[in-house]
Every structure is written in structure tokens, then in C-alpha cells.
Amino acid sequence: MQHVVIVGGGLGGLAAALRLRAAGVAVTLCEKNNALGGKMAQVVHNGFRFDTGPSLFTMPWVVEELLASVGRELANELTIKPVDPTCRYQWPDGTRLDAWSDLPKLLSEIERLEPSDVAGFLGFMAFSAQIYQAAAEPFLLEPFKGLRTMLQPRLLRDVWKIAPLKTVDQAVRQYFKHPYLRQLFNRYATYNGSSPYRSPATFCIIPYVEIAQGGWYIDGGMYQLAATLGRIAGEIGVDIQLNSTVTEVLLTGKTATGVRLADGRTINADYVIVNADALYALDQLIPTTKAPNHELACSGFVLMLGVNRDYAQLQHHNIFFSGDYAAEFRAIFAHGVPAVDPTIYIAATCRANPEHAPAGMMNLFVLVNAPVTGRVNWQREAAAYRDLVVRRLEQHGLVGLNEAIISETMLTPADLASMTNARRGSLYGPASHGLQAAFLRPANQPAGFDNVALVGGATHPGGGIPLVLLSGKAGARWAMQRLGLAEKPKHGTIF
User: Fold this and answer.
1) Is the pTM of this model over 0.85?
2) DSSP structure string for 100-114
3) Residue 413: is the preceding peptide bond cis (ω within 30°)?
């Protein structure tokens, strides 16, 4: 039986493992931690439960198709439910907007801020839909082959539709007048850790996906997705080895022959899929390769707060915007320092799962975009920045927050770098800045190698649950082609 070794048990590695095992391949998955999931993890502390990775579930059809490939049905494995409103947005002057999934209610919210922006929103959605239709199938849903992907006839024909010559901010300004609505729709560039003032308008595809296809939550917590994929992998015969750190991909010339582990063991393989951070993999795991030296996406500053009261103004997802969005991104990317007036995200999963916090209390996962490591001594500065973030939330209406905290865990960019092997703590690998940003991510197959693939959020097609799962699909497809296996027919339709 042909054998594939997968390095890393994040969502990309799990997706590849499931597809390959269903095709009859022997699969060994080596995970350095004591649990699967990678960046999708969970923390339980003093009776409070937190998801530490993705907090919103979009494009559920990607998971549905993955599960169908192993003969399972989404409805039998996970309970997903829409989050409504998808997010509550709040500004320093007290203005509030709820992003309802119900279109008339959402349009009413927009009209309340700026009546003329209702037409602008509809125009923006048509513009974003055009990008989705032009880019989704030839780019997002296919393995990245470097220049060959860029030269696909369909992409060349439709390049004007994906608006690569303007930035996200320029596109947003074209459709919206109200500064708060511009800030809201600029915010989607941060879904891949980038600045809306430097990312191509192609990334306006993100709000289209969330608004048109919906935002969802997985009952029990987002980590249930990783746990479920890991359980199914074990049930169908994937050899899952936890606490098994891979230190090197073994090569004979440009052909991978297996992997070496930190304990000295070696595992032979006909194909190796690496689900570690792509930049780390190219620099540290695969001999003779070197990661590109592109500008990095931002990192994050995280507080997991258990509070002894209920803040009624908080929904499941919440954004508290800064007063100067452009200054915030200049601080992070141009100066490499945390913003003094940051935009703050809070996920309170207790709104959907009350058991995630003791009765009458809340679990607040607080995330602030932060620069990658380099200019800030986080060991020295973390406590002061924590106090700044808490004070900002109190100013936004969470009165008495500091005194209400009875459980607290903090993660800095330096912590994230250590925990995930992400270069300088970047959560998404290369930043999506510039005309060719989407095409400059590490390819799914390193140049010159015919039996090594990279999957995960730092490679093609990008970060976020559906894209990482699609990267795992790409890695499995490369392996099947190399091993002479036919990919199973697709289940259902994509659109």
C-alpha cells in the first residue's frame, strides 16, 4: 500500500488525510502537540471555555464536500447554526450597527447611517459577486501552480473583473459615503491579516462570501470541527501520532523519502504533505528550500477574559472600531508597533453556548491586530498594552471590566510565534499587499519537488477555515496524481 506522511494536524493536514485515506492510501499524521487542530484550538480555564483560532464559519459547503468524500454527512457530524447578527459594530461615539443576515434588516441599518449608501451597498455586492464568479473556481478551488496558475486563459480573460489595480479602500470609497461604513467594509482585509489601504480590491470577495453565503457557528465551539475531523480520521484508519515533532523531510535529490522526528525515528513515505507554517517548512523542514522574504501579515494580541457579569451590549461577535483606521494600520505595518487606539474584536461564545461560562458570567475572547515581532519587547510591554486594551473597552461601554475579570490568559505575537512556528508570529504568512499579492504566497507544491506539498493558511489559497480546507484538498490531489490514483468524482455542486 502506498504511504503518505502528513506533517501537522491542523485543518489542512486533516483534510488531506481524510481524502487520501478514502482513496485507499496508508496515511500517517504526525502532530507535535498533544491535540489536533493547529491554530484551531481551545482553552478551558476556571470554568470558562475559549476558541483560540477562527471564530466564524463561512462556506459550509466546503466541509460538506469534504465529509461526503469519506461517506459522511455534515448534518450527522456537526450542528451548525447561523449567527444573527453576524457581527455588532460599534464606534467611539456610541454609534452601533448590527450586520443582520436578513437583507431588509441590514439595509435598514445601513440607511440609518446614510440613506444613499443603500444603493452603494447593493452596487458593492454586485462588484464583489463579479470577483467571486471570476476568481473562485480557477483560483480558490484549484491547486496553485505558480506562473501556470496566473496564465490560465480564464484568469487572463477575466482579470479586469477581479479589480487588481485598486485597493480595497479605493473600491469601498467608490460605493460608500459614510466613513463608518467605509471602515466596516475595509475591515474585511484583516481576515487575512492585511491592510485595506494596500490590499488589492480582489479581496472584496471576502465580504461577499460572508454576506451572501452567511456566517455560521459550530455548536459546542469552533474547535468541534477539528475534533470531528480528527475523530473521523481515526475511525477510517489514519495513523495519528500526537506529541511527534517532525524535524526534517528526508530527501534523495529532489525526491522525498520520508521524515525524521525529534526522537530520532524515521518514517518512510511515498509522498510528504507539510501542514506546518509554509514559511517555517521551507526554511526549517525541507532541505535546499528557502522561504520568500515577503512582507508579513500581521500578528495578534489576545486576551481570554472570564468576567463575573453579563454585558448586555455584547453579541456573539463584536467589533469596537478605532477613531483613526488608517493610523492603526500605519502603526502596525509601517512602524511595527501596536496601535495606541486599536480596533478590538470580541467573541462571546456564551451567547450561543451558555455552558462556556458560569451562570451570569461571560467568556470574552479579545483580539487586537498587532505587528509581527521585531520592534517590540513583548515581555516588557505586554502588561501595559493589556491595560490599554481593557481601558479602551471600558470607554466603549464595558463599564467596570477590569474589576469584573476573574480569569485571564494573554497571548502576544511572541507567544504565537513560539506556539505555531509562524515566522515572527504572523498569523497568515505573507501579507496580501500589492498587485500580485494573491500569487506570491508559497505554492502548494515547492518548485522542483514532485512528491512534496504544502498546505495550511500560509500557502495557497490563504487563511480561514474554508481556504485552509481547500489547501488540504489541493495537497491530496497532488499526492493522488503522483501516486497514480484517480480523484473520486465531486459530490454535489460548488455554486
Assistant:
1) yes
2) -SSHHHHHHHHHHH-
3) no
